[in-house]
Amino acid sequence: MPLSEEQKIRYARQLISQEIGEKGQEKLLKSKILQIGAGGLGSPCSMYLVAAGIGELTIVDNDILELSNLQRQILYDDSSLNRVKVEVAKERLNDMNSDTQIIIKKMYVDDKSIDELIKGKDYIVDCSDNAKTKFLVNDAALRNNVKCTIAGVKDFYGQIMTINPKKSACYRCVFFGEPEKLTIKEEPLPVIGVTPGVLGTLEALEVIKSILNIGETLENNLLMVNLLNMSFDKIPVQRHEKCICSK
Ligand SMILES: [Zn+2]
Questions:
Q1: Within the chain, what is the greatest distance between any pair of CA atoms?
Q2: What does the pLDDT average to over 4-20?
Q3: Is 22 domain-assigned?
Q4: Structural domain of residue 59, as residue ranges?
Q5: Mean pLDDT, the chain, as a whole number?
Q6: Is 234 inside any structural domain?
Q7: Does residue 93 sit within a domain?
Q8: Sequential DSSP letters for 144-199
Q9: For the whole prediction, is pTM greater than 0.70?
Q10: Could you tell me the distance, in angstroms and rounded to a whole number, from the CA of residue 152 to the centre of ligand 1?
Q11: What's the 84 CA to ligand 1 centre distance in angstroms?
Q12: Ligand 1 centroid to 243 CA: how many Å?
């Protein structure tokens, strides 16, 4: 569908970008994204995706907003306390840009539900706060042949990679170990709000660039971010021949 007059104004700065233009904007408006998590990473990721004019964003999260979340989860404010996060997120994101259809699911994802959620989607972005979910998103992306981006943060440090099934290394190629044995009850990690701010924003960027097929995304690369000494290191990673992604 051609852009409306209002859309031509709203997205004017993207339309004059040589990398995006009207064709690119139309692609963004048609894209359907699945985002797992609506916390520290999920807040900026969803806000930038919606502001950029993503067509449909499905957000999955089971949490209620607590006071200790507000230091980094910038979708929310004091009036959101004790409310279901995805419900507040939907209100906030609808207010930002009505071009994006926001679908919310208050639930935890598991092996079965994620396959249902992924149907018809163009991309999965992991904004969860635990390793178990990151492996689950990775495996579902491979199974369903849908690209995904996974990020993690701790304190002033973060890492992010993008997985292109059958073509690039996956999360398991890089992070070995059995997620089943990882502790279910994870201790709260230290984190300065800016860290998920930076990494969640980079996740939105990976989604947008992948949808538009422009530039270089973090396929076969792990970006290690150290915000204490301000280093961004792109580490090449390889598909592991014994990994599930090579079968
Ligand atoms: Zn792999």
A1: 54
A2: 98
A3: no
A4: 31-246
A5: 95
A6: yes
A7: yes
A8: HT--EEEEEEEBTEEEEEEE-TTTS--HHHHS-S-GGGS-SSPPPPPB-THHHHHH
A9: yes
A10: 17
A11: 35
A12: 5
Cα–ligand 1 centroid distance for 240 (angstroms): 6
Q: Provide the pLDDT for residue 76.
A: 98
Three-state DSSP class for residue 55: coil
Q: Is the pLDDT of residue 229 over 80?
A: yes
Task: For residue 171, report the distance from its CA to the centre of ligand 1, in Å.
Answer: 6
Number of domains in the chain: 1
User: CATH number, domain at 71?
Assistant: 3.40.50.720
49 alpha carbon – ligand 1 mean position (Å) = 27
In a domain, 67, yes or no: yes
Per the CB < 8 A criterion, the answer to whether 126 and 36 are in contact is: yes
- What would the mean pLDDT of 39-57 be, rounded to a whole number? 98
Q: At 95, phi and psi to the nearest 5?
A: -65, -30
H/E element holding 234? strand 231-236
CA of 238 to the centre of ligand 1 (A): 8
